[in-house]
Amino acid sequence: MDVSLKIVIVDESPVRAAILEDGLREAGFIQVVHLDATANLLARIYSIDPDVILIDLENPSRDVLEQMFQVSRAVRRPIAMFVDQSDAGSIQASVDAGVSAYIVDGLKKERIKHILDLCISRFNAFSRLQAELDQTKTALEERKVIDRAKGILMNAKKLPEDAAYALLRRTAMNENRKIAEVAQSVITAAELLK
Amino acid sequence: MSNSDARLRIGFIPLCDATALFVAVDKGFTAAEGLDVELVREVSWSNVRDKLNIGLFDAAHLIAPVAIASSLGLGHVKVPIIGPFGLGVNGNAITVSPSLYAAIAAAADGNITDPMVSARALARVVANRKAKGEEPLTFGMTFPFSTHNYHLRFWMAASGVDPDEDVRLVVLPPPYMVESLANKHVDAFCVGAPWNSVAVDLGIGFILHFASEILAHAAEKLLAVRRRWADENPEVLARLVRAHRRAAQFVEDHANLDEVAALLAAPNRIGVAPEIIKRTLDGRMKVAPDGTVRIDRSYLLVGRDGAARPDPVQAVWLYAQMVRWGQAPLSPEFLAETKAVFRPDLYDAALPGDVQCRCKKPADGIGAFAGPAFDADDVAAHLAAWKIKR
Question: Which residue, A104, A106, A178, B115, is the most exposed by fewest CB within 10 angstroms?
Answer without folding.
Answer: A106
